[in-house]
Amino acid sequence: MNVIFMGPPGAGKGTQAEKIVSEFQIPHISTGDAFRLAMSQGTPLGIEAKGYVDKGLLVPDEITNGIVRERLAQQDCEKGFLLDGFPRTIAQADALGEIVQSLNKKIEHVINLKVDRSFLLARLTGRRICKSCGATYHVIFNPPKQSDICDKCSGELYQRSDDTEEKVGTRLDEYTNKTAPLLDYYNKREILREVNGEQDIHAVTQQISSLLRGLAE
């Protein structure tokens, strides 16, 4: 079973991916993980990628696609894989199609976690972190007993600069402009499945699992 997880920042892709790969016993592959593996193994592409990462630059598609190809060719992907964070653009989706075809595989399911923008803003901007011990809270979903005070050490809670409404809005806009067109791309190929990501975590997991099990039969 070869699956792609899609959805905007904060939709819960990482959380759901962990649960699904555990149930179906397939590897969870993100581009970040693939980069780190290639760099730790010292592969030619890994060395090239490291040069860009060390300079704080984006890794070019040519190298990214090559690293993804190497990762999907490994033995643990023989029974399937779950891709998270790749592809991000139509060009990468085209490259992925060529990669899986060259490996005698195909993308079977694209699961899109659908979450409203206002819900995402509330989820992403509500995070608070303790300056002293690093404990994480959320003003709506996991609030501290006392406002702005850590339950564990009484340290001061703060909001990361990346979690402000302006920064989060920019991330969501980037997703909409660059990645959301992939939904139409995969919908035309009749492999896109949408799941309501605003449900309880367990309900989302159950829906995805039932969907994949039904499609696998």
From TrEMBL:
It holds the Pfam family ADK. InterPro entries: Adenyl_kin_sub (IPR006259), Adenylat/UMP-CMP_kin (IPR000850), Adenylat_kinase_CS (IPR033690), Adenylate_kinase_lid-dom (IPR007862), P-loop_NTPase (IPR027417). SUPFAM superfamilies: P-loop containing nucleoside triphosphate hydrolases. Signal peptide: none annotated. PROSITE patterns: ADENYLATE_KINASE. Zn(2+) binds at residues 130, 133, 150, 153. Transmembrane segments: none annotated. Its EC number is 2.7.4.3. It comes from the Bacteria. Consists of three domains, a large central CORE domain and two small peripheral domains, NMPbind and LID, which undergo movements during catalysis. The LID domain closes over the site of phosphoryl transfer upon ATP binding. Assembling and dissambling the active center during each catalytic cycle provides an effective means to prevent ATP hydrolysis. Some bacteria have evolved a zinc-coordinating structure that stabilizes the LID domain. This is Adenylate kinase. It comes from Paenibacillus eucommiae. The gene is adk.
